[in-house]
Design goal:
Blueprint: H1 2-56, H2 60-71, E1 75-81, E2 86-89, H3 93-100, E3 112-115, E4 123-132, E5 135-145, H4 147-176, H5 183-197, H6 212-261, H7 266-297, E6 306-309, H8 310-327, E7 331-335, E8 340-344, H9 346-362, E9 369-377, E10 380-387, H10 412-415, H11 421-431, E11 435-441, E12 445-456
Parallel strand pairs: 7-9
Antiparallel strand pairs: 1-2, 1-5, 3-4, 4-5, 6-8, 8-12, 9-10, 10-12, 11-12
Helix pairs in contact: 1-4, 1-5, 1-6, 2-6, 5-6, 6-7, 7-11, 8-9, 9-11
Subcellular location: Cell membrane
Catalytic activity: ATP + protein L-histidine = ADP + protein N-phospho-L-histidine
Keywords: ATP-binding, Cell membrane, Kinase, Membrane, Nucleotide-binding, Phosphoprotein, Transferase, Transmembrane, Transmembrane helix, Two-component regulatory system
Length: 457
């Protein structure tokens, strides 16, 4: 038994170690390549934004301002005429001359990548054509230094080495407890690790008992779940936060430079300062929401419950928020009988309802109505926020409480949202021991239902 146990243990060790090595290598490669791809997309988008401005104002001042804005960012820009003669640049032309000589497709209206070899070159780069009246008049070249990629790889190597060492120690420990009876469950675990190494984290292992083998099965299950969660969360968070923070910061830096370095009329100065103020408020709101979510995640968010008379509370809500609805030509109606009481944090409950009402205003039109109804059922208090707005597509409903998720992505900046409001609502409701549900139909409206443990008289 001991000999077989050692053989099975050694075989399991070799297989698991090999699979983990392949898995880590694939994950490592995927993380790096996906990050490079995200940067290229962001670089192309930034170049297209500059292109849009230059197509309207292709003059020396605009070219200088674009180059000046990029000189303050971590990217660089080179603007050329149709013959690829440099008109403006935020980087030494000797470093990027070779990129300018590369062929550019005349049909690539949305631009193209001309340099993605981050392993051997100093820059990744894209180009966007500038056209007026259907004629090519120039190009916008965008550049991103590849030094950050090497730094990312170095950090990943350290983390993966530590994870590999932990995996090896854990596997060796398992060998000590192997026996002939472990053969069948070990085969199942081997199949599960093969599934993980191929990138499929939908692993399901049966409960084998409260022993080391059972713990191993559970650990593999948790590893698959965590890897799946971390892969999705890392990609989503890096993409979302880089975009959401970079955009307002770019506006603030760019327009602040213009205000500081140009002689502007009072009207232009006020216009630019208004843009800076709007972006600053938006950035401040986003940072505050992120701090709130971080506190909730760390269980350091204070919930100070008091006994609330919901009729009085809802009257104050109606008085406070009705003007905002009236200004938009909408109507707010509140219904609550006087015998309902709730143990909750009044300021946090108001924050919950405010975020939901704010959404109702943003996604409703002139003449639409929003109703807040309060009722009880089996010692529970039920608060419903019902609007007759344009509704939420059914396929979007499972994701609306995700952080940075927006249903109407094309209007996100116009509407002014950060994509964090409903995430905060969900966390605050759960912090009160409640639940939140949503029903919606496009063109008919949306219903948010909050259920709390309550007190009735």
């Amino acid at each position: 038994m001991k000999k077989l146990s050692m053989k099975l243990g050694l075989l399991f060790f070799l297989i698991l170690f090999g699979l983990e090595t392949i898995m880590f290598f694939l994950l490592h490669s995927t993380l790096v390549e996906s990050r490079v791809e995200e940067e290229l997309i962001a670089l192309q988008t930034r170049g297209n934004s500059h292109r849009a401005i230059l197509e309207k104002h292709f003059d020396e001042n605009t070219i200088s301002h674009v180059a000046l804005m990029e000189s303050e960012a971590n990217t660089d820009v080179v603007i050329t005429d149709s013959n690829k003669e440099i008109l403006g640049s935020s980087v030494n032309s000797s470093y990027i001359q070779a990129y300018l000589e590369r062929p550019v497709s005349s049909s690539a209206r949305e631009g193209q990548t001309i340099g993605d070899n981050w392993k051997e070159e100093d820059y990744i780069s894209t180009v966007s054509p500038i056209e007026q009246n259907g004629q090519l008049i120039g190009h916008v070249y965008m550049f991103q230094d590849t030094a950050w990629i090497q730094s990312l790889i170095s950090r990943l190597n350290e983390q993966f080495l530590l994870a590999g060492l932990i995996a090896v120690i854990f596997t060796i420990t398992i060998i000590i407890f192997l026996s002939r009876a472990l053969a069948r469950p070990l085969i199942k675990m081997k199949e599960a690790t093969s599934q993980i190494s191929s990138g499929d984290f939908s692993v399901s292992l049966p409960k084998t008992g409260d022993d080391e083998l059972g713990d191993l099965a559970q650990s593999i299950q948790l590893l698959a779940n965590d890897l799946n969660y971390l892969r999705e969360e890392r990609n989503d968070f890096l993409s979302s936060i880089s975009h959401e923070l970079r955009t307002p910061l770019t506006y603030i830096k760019g327009y602040a430079d213009i205000v500081q370095k140009r002689d502007l009329s009072a009207e232009d100065r006020n216009q630019y300062l208004s843009i800076i103020l709007e972006e600053t408020i938006r950035l401040s709101e986003m940072v505050k929401n992120l701090f709130d979510l971080a506190k909730i995640d760390k269980n350091t968010f204070d919930i100070k419950k008091t006994h609330i008379d919901l009729q009085d509370f809802m009257k104050k809500i109606e008085t406070k928020f009705s003007p905002a609805f009236t200004e938009k030509g909408m109507k707010l109606s509140v219904g609550c009988r006087e015998t309902i009481r709730l143990s909750a944090d009044a300021s946090r409950l108001e924050q919950i309802i405010y975020n939901l009402l704010d959404n109702a205003i943003k996604y409703s039109s002139f003449g639409d109505k929003t109703t807040i109804s309060v009722s009880t059922s089996k010692k529970h208090v039920i608060i419903r926020i019902i609007d007759s707005g344009r509704g939420i597509p059914e396929k979007e409903l499972p994701f609306i409480f995700n952080r940075f998720y927006r249903v109407d992505k094309s209007r996100a900046r116009t509407l002014g949202g950060t994509g964090l409001g409903l995430a905060i609502v969900k966390e605050l409701v759960h912090a009160h021991g409640g639940t939140i549900s949503v029903w919606s139909r496009e063109g008919e409206g949306t219903v948010f239902e909050l259920v709390f443990k309550g007190e009735t008289e």
